[in-house]
Amino acid sequence: MRDSNCIFCKIVAGEIPSNTIYEDEEFKVFLDISPATKGHALIVPKQHYKDIYDIDEEVAARAMKLGKKLATHMTEVLACDGFNLMQNNNEAAGQTVFHFHLHLIPRYLGSKNNDILNWSHETFMAEEMAEIRDSLAL
Ligand code: AMP
Ligand code: ZN
User: Could you confirm whether 121 is annotated as catalytic?
Assistant: First the structure.
C-alpha cells in the first residue's frame, strides 16, 4: 500500500534521499529534514497509513517498540538529557505529512530550542472535569 503523492512513500521507495539511521522490512527511520534538535528523527512505517486512526494496531505497537529501542540508543550516542516521542494527527494537531510517523526528539538542557513542547494550560471547573471524565470512560 502506497500513495503516489506521498513524500514519505517516496523516501521509503528510495525515490527521494534521506539520512537513514535504521531500516528493516517494516520501518525506515531517518533524520527530520527540519530538526527541532540535534538527532531529531522519524520512525516511518513502509506501508502508507495516514495517521493513528488509520494505522494497523500491531504496526503501531511495533513502531512504539522500535521507539523505545531507538530512544535508548540515541540517548547513549547523543548524550542527550531527555527525550520526547511525539505523533501528530490531522492539521489541527500539527500534522503536515499525512503518512503516519513517530517523532524521536532528543532534548538537551540549556539548548536554545527548549520550549518546543511548552504549551499553555486551560482551566476547567470540577463539574466540567467530571463531565469530561464520564464522557471519556471506556
Ligand atoms: P508532522 O508535522 O508531525 O507531520 O511532521 C512532519 C515532519 O516531516 C516535519 O518535522 C518535517 O520537517 C519532516 N519532513 C518533511 N519532509 C521531509 C523530508 N523530505 N525528509 C525528512 N523529513 C521531512
Ligand atoms: Zn505514504
Answer: no
